[in-house]
Amino acid sequence: MIVRPQENWFRMLFVWNGSVLQSIIPQLIFVALVDTVAVATDGSVFGQKVPLNTTPFTLVGVALTIFLAFRNNASYSRYWEARQLWGDVLIAGRVLASQVSAYVPADAHFERRAFIHKLIAFTYAMKHQLRGTDPFEDMTRYLSAERSAALLNRHYRPVALITDLREALAERRASGAISCQQLLMLDTQVNRLAAAVTGCERIASTPIPYPYGVLLHRTVYAYCLLLPFGLVDSIGIATPIIAVFVSYTLIALEAIASEVAEPFGKLPNSLPLNALTRSFERSLLEQCGEELPPELTADRGYQLT
């Protein structure tokens, strides 16, 4: 995710990093070439005049705008739900760590520090599973080498770590260290962690139906490539400027929708999972009185994923 302070209106006109413009420049160049050909041939193709004017583009543009708005709303809903689920993970994890520190007595069979370290490892395992990356380095900082190696053979590592947390609490109840009411209170937070994992998996494994993207993509490009032939008779040499501007708006909206629809990726506008997990890690280590890793920050215009 791009993290930056609020820019003034003039600087916003020239923002490059995080604007999708850099990813759609080839498409805009192609559209500009078609626009130039339309002007040079006076709207003709193979010597035949293309009988278009601005009227059909006005009608189609309204429908296309509504469809783009639907696609962007659907994409942002996925993004916002993913952010809420990660917010639930941070809340439930911090509450669980605080409750364990306050209510669960430590002894030779239970160490609060080890329990909290498993919580931190859980968030890293969840992040790496959603991104399809290797979690070993992050997990070995908080788990034993044997347990980390064993988890690498599991398909659902966050779920396995949730089971570890639940078993540790069950052992405390079996030994009489905590009451049934305390176990229920603690287990409620573990359930919230499990629900958040399932919700994120649902988003990651259920993309927006493919035909929506195909239809929108084809319609946008058909509109942009035909537009100069409808404008050339009315605005003449200014056709490439107006047509490229309109194309930039439509193609960029499609690109933004595609990017935001995958909230767990590493694109500039994906969720900052590295920053979220580091923030969670720092807050729990502070509860343990341990040294904190550096906070992840971003300079102006740079990416914080």
Total tally of structural domains: 1
Task: Please mark out the parts with pLDDT under 50 across 5 or more consecutive residues, or reply none.
Answer: none
Separation, N- and C-terminal Cα atoms: 5 Å
Average per-residue pLDDT, rounded, comes to 90
Secondary-structure-derived class: mainly alpha
How many strand elements? 2
Q: Which percent bin holds the helix content?
A: over 70%
Give a quick rundown of the structure.
By secondary structure, the protein is an all-alpha fold. It contains eleven helices and two strands; from the N terminus they run ααββααααααααα. The protein has one domain (9-288).
Overview of this structure, please?
By secondary structure, the protein is mainly α. It has one domain. 70% of the residues lie in helices and 1% in strands. The chain has eleven helices and two strands, in the order ααββααααααααα. β1 and β2 form a beta hairpin. α3 packs antiparallel against α4. The radius of gyration is 26 Å and the shape is elongated. The mean pLDDT is 90.
Fill in the keyword field for this structure.
70% helix, 305 residues, mainly alpha, elongated, two-stranded antiparallel sheet, 11 helices
What is the topological layout?
Blueprint: H1 9-12, H2 21-40, E1 44-45, E2 48-49, H3 54-103, H4 112-131, H5 136-140, H6 145-152, H7 157-174, H8 180-205, H9 210-235, H10 239-260, H11 273-288
Antiparallel strand pairs: 1-2
